[in-house]
């Protein structure tokens, strides 16, 4: 049996990942989450999902990844999946020190924990935002990084710390650069959630810019498949791997798809583009295909339809 520590496991991606991992009785999962109160945008409201899990192979610990004393008392871990972070690009411009403290110091503490407890597998949630203003699309893992937000720079630091600990202490470190993840249990501050909320409640939807900014949207079930592969990946000691759909879609197009799914017309309010936002993101996913056998199964229409079906059941 493998004992997997999932930090930030009460969040959006973490909850989905834990539910998937626990489908296999050979996995045991410890979720460590502080239910982040420092940054209200980061509070996903998903804690109830993990708290409701009744499975002898599951343990929920409420606590902070920076709490070295708490970490010392977590025993028997084989693999760390590090998702806990101050999330969101825009608020990182307002409170950059929180991002540095949580995302950089926090990642270092966990790597030190891995070193001290001889944990040899560490999977890190990095972000497409590290590519920033790089205009060579689709982005390959070895492209130059041109971050334009404090959030992005903390993710680069996390990858860099991982490289150092991997080199010095033989910890296998796999960073997954995630591209705009959406789906059930996602945070209320994410655009897709706001979009369906606006459609459902006949509210105005704010578009930052003219709606031509494009994102590589990735359905959460495809993302958690990539995490499961990375958890058991053994071939090399350090890898950085994009996890996206491989297609960039304009926000205007996403709005049209959402309208067709819901059968409603939305009222748009166009406002200024936000500092820190990039115009387009698009992943090259050949490395993920090759190393993780990654094969995203959900088109944007599939994923948004599933998300809308899930919303209807809430
Ligand atoms: N959602 C996306 O589109 C996306 C894209 C790129 C990267 N990522 C990364 O993936 C990871 C998970 O993202 P998410 O969307 O599930 O975010 P989320 O905000 O829903 O979940 C993050 C969780 O981490 C917890 N947390 C934060 N700081 C903590 C700390 N110091 N100690 C313990 N727990 C702490 C929060 O309480 C929250 O439950 C994050 O690292 C994020 O940066 C997400």
Automatic annotation (TrEMBL):
SUPFAM superfamilies: NAD(P)-binding Rossmann-fold domains
Domain NAD(P)-binding: 5-305
A Pfam family matched in the record: GDP_Man_Dehyd
Signal peptide segment: none
InterPro entries hit by this protein: NAD(P)-bd_dom, NAD(P)-bd_dom_sf
Name assigned to this protein: NAD-dependent epimerase/dehydratase family protein
Originating species: Pedobacter jejuensis
Lineage of origin: Bacteria, Pseudomonadati, Bacteroidota, Sphingobacteriia, Sphingobacteriales
